[in-house]
Design brief:
seven-stranded mixed sheet, Aldehyde dehydrogenase family protein, Ald_DH_CS_CYS, Ald_DH/histidinol_DH, globular, 19 strands, alpha/beta, Aldehyde Dehydrogenase, Chain A, domain 1, oxidoreductase, Aldehyde_DH_dom, Aldehyde Dehydrogenase, Chain A, domain 2
């Protein structure tokens, strides 16, 4: 496969220093790539800007644009097994997740937004001005910079790429330096689908490449998924330059388990919700609020189930929990486990790196703390690893305040048979998405995004079309 950058339809090595993509399960170097320079980023933006103004893309009829996106979706589906394997090698997620969740979701998004390409409409409105015909039209923004994360590289990129292209924009993609390979393979498939040169460009490298893209004056919008800290920097830079921005940032999702919940029935949903992708999910359930009368029972069941999960290479069909993406993430998990112990939480299982054949990879045992208090750092700060915290509550009246006592607001879960209570809580909890009696689910038609420090704007659904278009008012005098 290609490991160069794609700029204006040409595969080209970057002008910066080399860096490597590493298999987190083994430490094996998968590929050597080049860091993009500011000149490389500028070349990619210029190529995207030229393509935006071209007849081949800018002048393309919506139905033709939809046809190209559908062809790209077909190709992605045809190559799903290959790309899922590549994603597992590069990121570490078990193959059942990459082939059963990430790839189907990406294909679904392409097809969903291909359908929107012919349905992006304005409105007519009666004005209180005589003899005027008034209408609006939605128009593409131009060059969009898409900065993708390393936890679900291909899937989350597609949440941005599909609506951006459906609306008629062109893009420069900055893949995460830890996980660039599936993005580059996707770019090759878009070429094969017939997407014109310069419409989709990919630059590789780390934070400096992202900064160059964010600051480029010809980039009209930035869409970023990643940490809240970096999101604040990007938001500030876009604000100074009056540039549109969408930010999907960190999370510390509460999972509220009422006294009437069937603990055995809800256990798997909470275990999966907390440990999917080794806990490297911004929507991972990491704060379990359990009625104090059932706290110990739930904590014991959760830690028992977590302790039986099989760690291993994501390509191994027996693996249930893969590695973290990097040594830095392992160090972060270990640091928070130490903090949790120092704060006085009860470590029930895990809390260390496995030895033996897994020692060459970036593995960390699934970890459960019980007896956690609201003011402990492990209950308040995003760990982004397989570390779960169980907190007791005494009265349902406390739950809204407890769940909202955080700077984050991306997602939440509620488990109870009391339909009145769960719907009241769903309204009161400050989170962009609330799941009731279920583990995480996503759909291209359901808007996704955060409140508070978890981000700005929404992806998916019509909201994403709005995010990649501007509204123009057109007034016509009738006499």
């Amino acid at each position: 496969m290609r490991t160069e950058m794609l700029i204006g339809g040409e595969w080209t090595a970057g002008g910066g220093p080399a860096f490597t993509s590493v298999n987190p399960a083994t430490g094996e170097v998968l590929a050597e790539l080049r860091e993009a320079t500011e000149a490389d980023v500028d070349a990619a933006v210029q190529a995207a800007d030229s393509a935006f103004a071209s007849d081949e893309w800018g002048g393309l009829l919506p139905a033709a644009r939809a046809k190209l996106l559908l062809r790209a979706a077909d190709l992605l589906e045809e190559h799903a097994a290959e790309i899922a394997r590549l994603e597992t090698q590069d990121q570490g997620q078990p193959l059942p997740i990459s082939i059963g969740f990430s790839l189907p979701n990406a294909v679904e998004h392409l097809r969903y937004y291909a359908g929107w390409a012919t349905k992006i409409t304005g409105i007519t409105a009666p004005l209180s001005v005589p003899d005027i015909d008034y209408r609006t039209r939605r128009e593409p923004l131009g060059v969009c910079g898409l900065i993708a994360p390393w936890n679900f590289p291909l899937m989350i990129l597609m949440w941005k790429l599909a609506p951006a292209l459906a609306a008629g924009n062109t893009v420069v993609i900055k893949s995460a330096e830890q996980t660039p390979l599936s993005t580059l393979r996707l770019a090759g498939l878009f070429e094969e689908a017939g997407i014109p040169a310069g419409v989709v460009n990919v630059v590789t490298g780390g934070p400096d490449v992202g900064r160059a893209l964010v600051r480029h004056p010809q980039v009209k919008k930035i869409a970023f998924t990643g940490s809240t800290e970096v999101g604040r920097e990007i938001g500030a830079e876009c604000g100074r330059n009056l540039k549109k921005v969408s930010l999907e940032l960190g999370g510390k999702a509460p999972s509220i388990i009422a006294a009437d919940a069937d603990l055995d029935a809800v256990l798997q949903g909470n275990l999966l919700g907390g440990l999917i992708n080794a806990g490297q999910s911004c929507a991972a359930y990491t704060r379990f609020y359990v009625d104090a009368r059932r706290h110990d029972e739930f904590a014991e069941k959760l830690s028992g189930a977590a302790g039986t999960l099989r760690l291993g290479n994501g390509l191994d069909p027996q693996t249930q929990l893969g590695p973290l993406v990097s040594a830095e993430q392992v160090d972060q998990a270990e640091r928070y486990v130490t903090i949790g112990k120092q704060e006085g939480a009860d470590l029930l299982t895990g809390g260390q790196r496995p030895d033996g054949e897994l020692s060459s990879g970036f593995f960390y045992e699934p970890t459960v703390f019980a007896g956690v208090q609201q003011d402990m750092r492990i209950a308040r700060e995003e760990i982004f690893g397989p570390v779960l915290t169980v907190l007791p509550y005494d009265s349902p009246d406390e739950l809204t305040a407890l769940a909202n006592d955080t700077g984050y607001g991306l997602a939440a879960a509620i488990w109870s048979r009391d339909i009145s209570m769960v719907n009241r809580l769903a309204q009161e909890v400050k989170a962009g998405t609330v799941w009731i009696n279920m583990h995480q689910a996503l759909d291209a038609a359901a808007p996704w995004g955060g409140m508070k420090s978890s981000g700005i704007g929404r992806e998916m659904g019509w909201d994403a079309i709005e995010a990649y278009t501007d509204v123009k008012s057109i007034w016509t005098h009738l006499t």
